């Protein structure tokens, strides 16, 4: 492999700063690269290409030294090989979809924006629900007022026209509109659709991040490719300097290049760790939003069930009020049925109010958690 063969060649042909002995600046990085080659068939192919081109360049340069000159063809071989190796690195990076070095993830940014926008819309829905419940309580008060009048009028012990106030209140109840308007239901369906869509997008994004985290081996391939390309670049230019038979230049060049190259391996590893940390940071943000969206959807489902129950009770109260208004002789029977329903109606109203409050609190909590993750996220 490249690491091993370079070591052998460097021990005889390369100036002292480039020697690959046990104390070399690059020994640990090349050992890591060699180990990666053993495990990664794709990197083996890359390494074979690098070996072939490096060998071709050095052979050409060696021929130039034998005839005491460097031909134009030899220099073309050097520059051409450099371009080819850079292209190999580009190919590896492209295989990783070139998103490794993106400083900003536009998809994540869009999801975060949508999450906060949707959460505000859901808070608006909770406020709209409270307004509907306020109207429901007003209807509850009218019904209870009718019950009070009925008790007062019943004390007279006379049937029929004596229930004028009771019937008047029941008529007032009947003429009031449904507490849940068409606009409210339209808002509910819109919010529910937004949250369901949000949850689906977050699930897809999380799957992508999970896939990337499982594919970090590919990123290792990229970092190794960059490192070995940089190493070979220095090796070739050092051989060129040696071929020019200018020892002071060789020493200066090798010394100058040893500093940046010595940090290439560390830079690649640092890049890898930063990418891994960034992915995990993104996953934390996505997971937080996913939990928030799931809880909101659950709350909306519970609210919808309770609204359906309240509508059923409201419709039952209306039917009994209409029955009493059509049949004045059956007022007592209708009122007895209303008494059975009104407490359930009141209980559902209070339950819905608690659910709306709970939904609002959990939305605010989810917003806070996501904000904390974003602040923590190093991206």
TrEMBL record:
GO CC field: membrane
Keywords: Coiled coil, Membrane, Transmembrane, Transmembrane helix
Subcellular location: Membrane
Recorded superkingdom: Eukaryota
Residue ranges of coiled coil: 192-219, 300-369
Chief place of localization: membrane
Residues passing through the membrane, by range: 222-246, 252-272
One Pfam family cited in the UniProt record for this chain: DUF677
PANTHER family linked: UPF0496 PLANT-LIKE PROTEIN, UPF0496 PROTEIN 3-RELATED
Similarity comment: Belongs to the UPF0496 family.
Protein name: Uncharacterized protein
Source organism of the structure: Lupinus angustifolius (Narrow-leaved blue lupine)
Record lineage: Eukaryota, Viridiplantae, Streptophyta, Embryophyta, Tracheophyta
């Amino acid at each position: 492999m490249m690491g091993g063969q370079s070591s052998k060649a460097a021990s005889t042909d390369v100036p002292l700063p480039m020697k690959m002995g046990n104390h070399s600046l690059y020994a640990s990085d090349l050992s890591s690269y060699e180990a990666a080659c053993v495990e990664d068939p794709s990197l083996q192919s890359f390494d074979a290409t690098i070996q072939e081109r490096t060998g071709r360049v050095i052979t050409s340069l060696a021929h130039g030294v034998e005839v005491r000159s460097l031909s134009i063809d030899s220099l073309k071989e050097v520059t051409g090989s450099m371009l080819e190796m850079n292209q190999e690195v580009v190919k590896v990076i492209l295989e990783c979809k070139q998103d490794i070095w993106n400083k900003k993830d536009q998809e994540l940014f869009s999801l975060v924006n949508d999450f906060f926008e949707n959460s505000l819309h859901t808070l608006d829905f909770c406020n709209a629900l409270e307004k509907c419940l306020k109207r429901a309580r007003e209807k509850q008060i009218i019904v209870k007022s009718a019950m009070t009048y009925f008790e007062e009028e019943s004390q007279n012990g006379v049937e029929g026209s004596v229930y004028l106030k009771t019937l008047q209140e029941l008529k007032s109840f009947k003429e009031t509109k449904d507490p849940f308007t068409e606009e409210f239901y339209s808002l509910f369906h819109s919010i529910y659709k937004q949250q369901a869509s949000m949850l689906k997008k977050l699930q897809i994004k999380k799957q992508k991040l999970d896939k990337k985290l499982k594919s970090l081996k590919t990123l290792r391939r990229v970092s190794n490719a960059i490192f070995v390309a940089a190493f070979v670049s220095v090796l070739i230019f050092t051989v060129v300097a040696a071929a020019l038979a200018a020892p002071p230049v060789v020493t200066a060049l090798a010394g100058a290049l040893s500093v940046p190259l010595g940090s290439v391996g560390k830079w690649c590893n640092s890049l890898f760790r930063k990418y891994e940390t960034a992915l995990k940071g993104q996953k934390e943000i996505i997971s937080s939003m996913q939990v928030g969206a799931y809880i909101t959807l659950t709350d909306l489902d519970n609210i919808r069930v309770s609204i359906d129950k309240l509508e059923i009770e409201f419709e039952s109260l209306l039917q009994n009020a209409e029955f009493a208004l059509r049949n004045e002789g059956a007022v007592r029977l209708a009122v007895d049925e209303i008494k059975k329903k009104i407490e359930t109606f009141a209980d559902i109203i209070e339950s819905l109010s608690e659910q709306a409050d709970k939904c609002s609190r959990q939305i605010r909590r989810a917003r806070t958690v996501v904000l904390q993750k974003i602040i923590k996220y190093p991206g």
